[in-house]
Every structure is written in C-alpha cells, then in structure tokens.
Amino acid sequence: MNTEETSRFVRLRVELVLEVDDAGAVTKAALARIAGDVDMPADERAHAENAVTEDTAEALAYLVDPFDLVSEVPGVDLAQASWSSEQIDYDPDSPDWDIDEDDVDEDDDETTVG
DSSP string spanning the chain? Predict the structure, then answer.
C-alpha cells in the first residue's frame, strides 16, 4: 500500500477509566483552570464553574485535554478532538470491560494498556 492510496488522517480511540481518590482536589484544579482561561465569556465561566463543582466527571473533562496527549508526538497535528466523561460503576473483573467486537474494525490497529 503506498501513501497515495492511504489517508493522512488517523482516528485514535482511547478509553480511560480513572479512579478519583480526591474529588475536592480535582474540582479545585478544574476551577483554577477555568479561572485561568481569560478568553472564556462570563456566562460560560459561570456555567463551567457550576458544572465542575457539582460533578467530578465534568471537572475531569476540563482537566484532560486530548491536545496534551499528542502535542509532543513528532510528525502529527491534532485535526479534531472530542471527549466526554461520566461517572460509572466499574468492576475490573467484569467481562463487560473487554473490547466489544463492534468497537473494533478489522482495519484498526488497537493497543490496550492495563
């Protein structure tokens, strides 16, 4: 396969499960990040502060930036990113945490860490 036949764009799917030991610290860090965003309009800032105060998952969404994950990878530029967070019930021994066949295309290269 030569490069003329392949796309320059690659979708990298990452799913993380984080254990939050100190929700207060996460909320405090998210509030600090929001306060430091001088370009955020006041109404959006109020909404963001309320969201991260009420929900640790929202606070994490303000702290985890996909750009940070790839900013030092040579030869790539982040073209688009989206992410979300939610609180979940987690059982690491559950077979439900295995990658579903529907989640993996035959053409995908997948790396699982953990």
Answer: --GGGS-S------------S-HHHHHHHHHHHHHT-TTS-HHHHHHHHHHHHH-HHHHHHHH--HHHHHTTSTT----------------TT-GGGSPPGGG--TT-------
Mean pLDDT by 10 residues, the chain (114 residues): 72 88 97 96 96 95 89 92 86 70 48 41
pLDDT at 31: 98
Fill in the amino acid letter for 70.
V
How far is Cα 106 from Cα 13, in angstroms, rounded to an integer? 14
Residue type, 66: P
Whether 87 and 56 have beta carbons less than 8 Å apart is answered as: yes
Residue 40 contacts residue 62 (beta carbons within 8 Å): no
Q: What is the DSSP track for 95-110?
A: GGGSPPGGG--TT---
23-35 and 56-63 helices, crossing angle to 10°:
50
